[in-house]
Amino acid sequence: MKHSKRYLVGISALLVLVVGGGVALGRALNKDDDLMEDTTPKTMDVILTEIRSLMQDYSIEAYIIPSVDAHNSEYISLHDRRYQYVTNFTGSAGTAIIMLSKAAFWTDSRYHLQAENEIDPSYWTLMKEGVTGVPTRDEWLLSNLSPGAQVGTDPFLIASTEYERLGGVLAQHGYRLITLERNLVDIVWNNRPPQTSEE
């Protein structure tokens, strides 16, 4: 009887070790454990390369990143500053558009000098809104998209009126504006600031 109890205790301890080890291994393989997550800041080259790889997966040729959050606010939390993550621009207004081989960022006259200092021209073309000769976002897209191309956007970050307007402009020239189920910046942003309840 004593031997049976010892045997059962031994088997129970072994099961705990096996199950516990299996859970730990599963976490490691699935990268669910916070300790396994790499939060090392990515370079601009890596960020854009990863986003462009996702764009190809979604069959889009351009991706629009506005400077608003899901409430269409202009002044937003660090958690929602997707345009800042991809461009390094810290102003409160602008729109980034990434294509497979180029990228451009539009901002108004309040931020022209700031954008010049913060945006790397080897990755981004700065579009100073209001300056003669600078194309609008619509004009730039129409002059750079290939026939039949698709343009992607986050449905939570574009007003319905703007979606209909831009979608109509693109459709007139044989292009298509589509919404993606996941924001591409969110997918690659590995050290994203947490959401807060602050105003």
Automatic annotation (TrEMBL):
Name the UniProt key words of this record, in alphabetical order: Hydrolase, Metal-binding
Q: Does the keyword Protease apply?
A: no
Domain Creatinase N-terminal, first and last residues per copy: 50-170
The record's GO molecular-function terms, alphabetically, read: hydrolase activity; metal ion binding
Q: Which superkingdom is the protein from?
A: Eukaryota
Q: Which residues form a coiled coil?
A: none
UniProt keyword annotation of Metal-binding present = yes
The UniProt entry, under SUPFAM superfamilies, shows:
Creatinase/prolidase N-terminal domain
Which Gene3D superfamilies would you find in this protein's record? Answer: Creatinase/prolidase N-terminal domain
Q: Which family does it belong to?
A: Belongs to the peptidase M24B family.
By what name is this protein known? Creatinase N-terminal domain-containing protein
Q: What is the lineage of its organism?
A: Eukaryota, Metazoa, Ecdysozoa, Arthropoda, Hexapoda
